[in-house]
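Hey everyone, long-time lurker, first post.

I ran two proteins through the pipeline my lab uses and got sequence/structure pairs for each. Pasting them in order. The first:
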Amino acid sequence: MNHPGSEIVAAVVEDEQAADRLCASLRRNGVRRGEMDRFALNPAGQHHGLPLGGDEDTDAGAKTGSSGAIAGAGLGGAVGATIGTAVAPVIGPSAIVGGMAAGVYAGSLAGALNSMGAYAEATHPVVRPPGASWWQCVSPIPGSCAPS
């Protein structure tokens, strides 16, 4: 069933100036302000103000961070304990515990940071590059939103 004025025509333009020109052209051609609308699509990740920023509750890039931290802590703890054992005759037995603690800390940090990011890049491509604003023109008149 076709109702006059029930069609929605949309155009995507690259910047606000192009949207201004398009809307002005529509107004010159008889489209009233109430018959059209325009809005901007923010860059990906900037749609909602969560307390820490962004618009997603989790970061897919951090998915593998915990396993990397565990592996790094194990390796770092072993290296730190070995170094602590080597310097224990000079510093004392506490060097073993201190070396192991420092190794666990440094290893877990390095392991987590090293393992994050690859999963997100492999499975979640960026839909739009950050910083790109896309403006949209919506009008009930077919062909009226074609960029000039």
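...and the second, right after it:
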Amino acid sequence: MRGVPREFPEVTTVVSQLGRPDGLDVNGFDTAEIYVDLRPREEWKTAHDRDHLVTAMNERLARIPGIEVSFSQVIEDNVNEAVSGVKGELAVKIFGEDPQELQKLADQVADTIRQVPGAADVAAERLAGQPQVQIALDRDAIARYGLLHDALRLKTGERGDAALGPACGPDEG
């Protein structure tokens, strides 16, 4: 995902933060924030203003399945977060007991707001059902490569305490 902004000649630097930072940040563990520094506007080639550059980047990022993208400025993002507890200039909070019903209502509200002229980066937060990868290890198959079941379980984060990563055989270390 970090490679997409680098495709634009306006971009000088791309830095990302994955997961939830320490402190009071409202982000979940499934969040990626990408900070992009840009060249001076007179050097831009893709677009002549921020709105058109955001549109071009958003069109390119939309090709990546399963992600929701929003654009903001760092200070704007931090102020909005501090004031409302959510990212964005406008937030609609819905309270209730049933998570499925809350998600259904949130999706309906987001669909309605998308119809408003000028609305952009509209998204309902996911309350449940975050995408995940589940890996069932075949002990016999991995043993043929000299790999240990418990080592692979830890490496892939099956226990929830390690990041997903590549596993190496005894000679690939």
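Reply from user beta_strand_b:
Welcome! Quick read of the second one: Confidence is low (pLDDT under 50) at residues 155-173. Residues 99-114 form the longest helix (16 residues).
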